[in-house]
Amino acid sequence: MRTSSVPAPVLMVTAVLSVQFGAALAQTQFEVVGPTGATLLRLIFGALILLVAVRPKVSGWTREQWAAATVLGVALAGMNTLIYLAIGEIPIGVAVTLEFTGPLLLALVQTRRLADAAWALLAFAGVVLLGLDGGSDLSLAGILFALGAGAFWVVYILASARVGRLVPGVEGLAVSMAIGAVLALPFGATAAMGGAVASPLVLPVFVGVALLSSALPYGLEMLALRRLSTRVFGVLSALGPAVAALAGLLVLGQALGPREITALVLVSAASVGVTVGVRRRRADNSASVLSQLKKTD
């Protein structure tokens, strides 16, 4: 089945599931390679997978295409490095919750309809509720890392949409991920090489992490952004904190409490609400166009 026949919201949900479980898998190796080493291995393998799969033809790229891909590469390096540093300090569900403040604020700023704003605010309430868990025990460094990752996430959303418009397929993403890996090299090379030598599991685990956390979800997100506005993308991404909390439970043994369950309900309701709203508006627009065509017959 071609991805063009898959609804954009389905692509987004699949991407969210993939990236959060991939992050939880990566965290199982932090004692061996550390957060920066994990980031580098994820980006390297993700870039290699995409470069081999799509074989981008960059010889004919314009300066505008290279500039867009570079900005996306910076966003990938910054976002991935900071969120891994964050989940090395605080629980993954809380880290992703705080990171999500970036795209959620983007969705709120860009909304033009009262209904969209209401769904975004509902998602924000769930995110805040989830983020409150842990209270004063949360590491300040972890909080700042997560918020910094959220800022880079905003850049990623905007840059990914631009690259998707300028470069066919996921060729731009492949190049951007390679650029991100080069940028992450000085920070994670020593830890990554040391970990790879110390444990034979490191390299195969991070091939899996690259597939789950980089190659698959970023490719799906870029395809989804071609059919979704960035504000709708931001609200659909509200599933991220909930899925991260679930991945933390299943992969890392981080239990969910009543606060987290309530937050899951809120962000899931908001995601469903915005998705249904988009479909209804498209149906209304199609009906309006059909009505106008009939009037001209």
Descriptive overview:
With 297 residues, the protein is an all-alpha fold. Helix content is 82%, strand content 0%. The chain has twelve helices and no strands. α3 runs antiparallel to α7. The longest helix is centred in the C-terminal third of the chain and has 39 residues, at 258-296. It is globular, with a radius of gyration of 19 Å. The two termini are 36 Å apart.
Topology record:
Layout lengths: L7 H20 L2 H25 L8 H25 L4 H8 L1 H10 L3 H18 L8 H27 L4 H28 L3 H24 L4 H7 L2 H14 L5 H39 L1
Question: What are the main properties of this structure?
Answer:
297 residues; mainly alpha; 12 helices; disordered C terminus
Write the element-wise H/E pattern from the N-terminal end onward: HHHHHHHHHHHH
Roughly what percent helix?
Answer: over 70%
Number of helices: 12
How does the overall form come out from the CA principal axes?
Answer: globular
Sum this structure up briefly.
With 297 residues, the protein is mainly alpha-helical.
